[in-house]
Amino acid sequence: MNYLGKILAIAYKDLLHEYRSRETITTMMIFSFLVVVIFNFTFDPGSSYALEAAPGIIWVAFTFSGMLGLNRSFIYEIDKGCFHGLLLSPVDRGAIYLGKMIGNIIFMTIVELLTLPLFIVLFNLQFSNYLLQLLVIIVLATIGFAAVGTLFSAIAVNTKAREIMLPILLFPVVVPVILSAVNATGSLLRSDDWSQVFAWIRILLAFDVIFVAICYATFEYVVEE
Amino acid sequence: MIVVKNLTKSFGTQYALRGIHLEIQEGTFLSIFGPNGAGKTTFIRILSTLSRPSTGEILIDGKKLQDHAESFRQRIGVIGHSTFLYDELTAYENLQFYARLYSIPDAKARIHQALEEVGLKARADDFVRTFSRGMQQRLSIARAMLHQPDILLLDEPFTGLDQHASFMLMHWLKELKNEKRTILLVTHDLTHGLELAEHVAIFVRGKVAYFEHTDHFDESEFQNHYHKVVAAGGAA
User: What is the pTM of this model?
Assistant: First the structure.
């Protein structure tokens, strides 16, 4: 099996494991839904405050639920030494990283796509004209978040306080992703000029390219003793 | 042939290995004994490329292990007390996953053959979480043997097994030994280790304190000798 085939085998294994256990996505989804619903109680739907806060709220839901997913990403690999099984196989460490990252991106995207309709309905938002642009922002931000998160999850899983270690490591690095995603979503909501939205999308694109490359190259040193 | 030269491994200021020298001929069954903290597992982890040595080198058939780690992993099988198996996948799916990683040709036939060899063909579609510890260890053997490695590293494989499962594991190990693979077994169990071994080594405080062919000592006296070597901290 070629390089790509091994990456996909790892990602497929993660999907199959999740399909059977339904542990990660369920946890992420419940958390994400709760964030949206609880914030909805604090604002009058359709009010100007709600409109202003909405981009921040949706990205709070996405980032924190994503964090839950990333935290679990390596925990079940550690459980029966399966991660050692991966490292012992004749697969480039970078391929293991990419396989795990793809799995995380898929989990996060599923949760985000399920949360989005609830968010739009509860906050009475008009995204219909910009849905495609919003999806582009979500996908790009998710790639950046998962790229760094997968690497840090592999580091955090071997620490005692892994649940708290991951956010401590991850958030400072993904600040550009969260800022860009919130601002781009806000620009869409305000029907700003496309050039303003695209400026944030360019930052997301640059972040994705740079950090996928960096994390791919450094993963080997993170997992080897 | 595996040649280990002046291998050391430190974690901060603590040395787990303090200059290991070993030569292991092809097709040898070597049992490695030693007390807790002697560096046995660290040695196996370095041999399996899970860990990098601090100094020293390992040569397999004259090639440096660290420089060809990925290709050597294709030749190495590891069985430990952890099974490396996913609970939520079936026995077949677990082996299928590893078959993909090891690029095994005609994987389906090989997986069925491996399952048959460990007596789990009838349970191929059952989830691993429903297996007993003994069955999981048998599946772990199938996983490790799937790519037919010529070097097999075993780290405490008898841990947690009941008598019947231990008997089964001994049976498989004897079969593997007859196939003339190079096998390194790390164990606290002197009886099992001696029964299988052609060579024995005793690790004490990160060093090889004793290395001998089983023909060159009286097995009934080995336990006393082992305690003397360990008590002397490797000086006996």
Answer: 0.91
